[in-house]
């Protein structure tokens, strides 16, 4: 009997090891978002709705230059401060930080003198927004990678901001933007004159890149920046043509037809102010902003990011789960907040799924969610529902890992980037008695952003 029991344990151990080393089954599913488009369904927004989305997006986007006031609530602005004085965490060497080390960072923030300035500015290069004025990471445990708790977000060049404070070294500026606030390096930001603000606010037309990381160069071939999915670019207005009846007008028309489209990028001059740099996008893959909101357009956006690596808070210029959804919907004129919990509440139509069991949740999502437009939220994670495959709900998301458990072990299964999976990803590696919760178990709510976009236009027309 003892021998038999030992044999059973050995079999379980061998099977468990084989399962542990096997790749996740979901990663063999089609990773092309177009595969999941249901031909008999689509979204359709009126031109009026698109116009409304664009106006609301730009109003919020430019608010640091127009209506935003300095947030004087230091507890909210410097939320990280208490941890610096009692929870040092671990550094890049995976050793525990000293309280002296984090207390010095606290002192450098110069909180007693906040706010020390209110200056309109613009980001001049893609850069990190930090919770503290340092590039050094802070992990909760020695195995905390990639979750640097001092990393807030990646912010794109061209983003309007309000400078509210400087650290004692003057190497870091504290900023407020339309979606995030925190510390950025002074080298990556430029002040802006009111005349330049007025000019940029007068521009009516914008474009968005259809692909991620399109390199842009100046007229001499020097690299300037990468155009990123989710980034909007102001389209340089063409010069006004002379009178229609003049010979000069006809010549001007012939010239303008040959003119290339130009967008603005930004550099910092020696005085610390921004210089607008026009860049040709002729022959590059850009679309007018906002894009028409349909399944094919969203599928194309997802495909442009499939396989890209995960980056907590935008670290290493990568995306995390909420940056993936925020950058996806930005193309359609929907400016989502920074974190997942705020994103699901943004449209004001979140449906609470927390009381349902896993099967009920999945069926409700399939029956009521709009493919390529509904976001699914669980604590600490957000996903985009894209339809069904073989009766399962499918989601596109940017995820670091999925945890599974058996009688003998708990395993972290690395996803590591943008993937398309079921809501049961990793189920085959879970035990029957000892198991971890699946994504579907942890989903708490969902929000339909197509429904929001449709009703937003209707509510405006009633006013």
From TrEMBL:
Keywords: Hydrolase, Protease, Signal, Thiol protease. Residues 292-435 form the NlpC/P60 domain. GO terms for molecular function: cysteine-type peptidase activity. Pfam families: N_NLPC_P60 (PF12912), NLPC_P60 (PF00877), SH3_6 (PF12913), SH3_7 (PF12914). It comes from the Bacteria. This is SH3 domain-containing protein. The keyword Hydrolase applies. Belongs to the peptidase C40 family. The keyword Nucleotide-binding does not apply. Residues 1-20 form the signal peptide. It comes from Helicobacter cappadocius. GO terms for biological process: proteolysis. SUPFAM superfamilies: Cysteine proteinases.
């Amino acid at each position: 009997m003892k021998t038999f029991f030992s044999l059973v344990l050995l079999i379980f151990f061998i099977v468990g090891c084989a399962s542990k080393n096997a790749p996740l089954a979901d990663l063999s599913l089609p990773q092309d978002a177009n595969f999941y488009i249901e031909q008999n369904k689509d979204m359709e927004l009126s031109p009026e709705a698109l116009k409304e989305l664009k106006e609301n997006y730009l109003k919020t986007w430019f608010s640091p230059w127009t209506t935003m006031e300095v947030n004087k609530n230091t507890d909210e602005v410097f939320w990280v401060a208490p941890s610096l004085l009692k929870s040092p965490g671990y550094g890049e060497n995976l050793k525990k930080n000293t309280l002296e080390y984090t207390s010095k960072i606290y002192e450098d923030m110069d909180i007693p003198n906040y706010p020390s300035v209110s200056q309109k500015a613009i980001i001049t290069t893609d850069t990190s927004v930090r919770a503290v004025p340092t590039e050094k990471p802070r992990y909760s445990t020695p195995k905390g990678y990639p979750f640097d708790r001092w990393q807030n977000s990646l912010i794109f060049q061209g983003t309007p901001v309000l400078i509210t404070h400087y650290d004692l070294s003057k190497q870091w500026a504290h900023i407020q933007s339309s979606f995030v606030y925190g510390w950025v390096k002074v080298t990556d930001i430029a002040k802006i004159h009111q005349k330049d603000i007025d000019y940029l606010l007068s521009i009516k037309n914008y474009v968005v890149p259809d692909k991620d990381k399109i390199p842009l160069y100046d007229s001499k071939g020097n690299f300037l920046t990468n155009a990123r999915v989710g980034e909007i670019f102001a389209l340089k207005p063409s010069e006004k043509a002379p009178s229609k009846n003049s010979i000069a007008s006809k010549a001007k028309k012939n010239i303008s037809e040959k003119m290339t489209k130009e967008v603005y990028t930004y550099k910092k001059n020696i005085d610390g102010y921004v210089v607008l740099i026009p860049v040709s996008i002729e022959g590059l893959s850009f679309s007018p902003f906002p894009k028409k909101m349909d399944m094919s357009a969203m599928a194309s956006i997802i495909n442009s990011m499939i396989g890209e690596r995960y980056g907590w808070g935008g670290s290493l210029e990568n995306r995390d789960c909420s940056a993936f959804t925020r950058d996806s919907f930005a193309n359609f004129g929907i400016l989502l907040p920074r974190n997942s919990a705020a994103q699901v509440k943004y449209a004001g139509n979140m449906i609470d799924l927390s009381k349902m069991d896993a099967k009920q949740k999945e069926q409700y999502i399939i029956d009521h969610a709009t493919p390529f437009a509904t976001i699914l939220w669980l604590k600490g994670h957000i996903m985009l529902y894209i339809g069904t495959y073989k009766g399962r709900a499918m989601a596109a998301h940017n995820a670091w890992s999925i945890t599974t458990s058996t009688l003998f072990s708990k395993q972290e299964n690395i996803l590591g980037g943008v993937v398309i999976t079921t809501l049961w990803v990793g189920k085959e590696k879970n035990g029957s008695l000892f198991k971890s919760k699946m994504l579907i178990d942890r989903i708490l709510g969902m929000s339909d952003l197509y429904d929001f976009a449709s009703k937003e236009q209707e509510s405006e027309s009633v006013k």
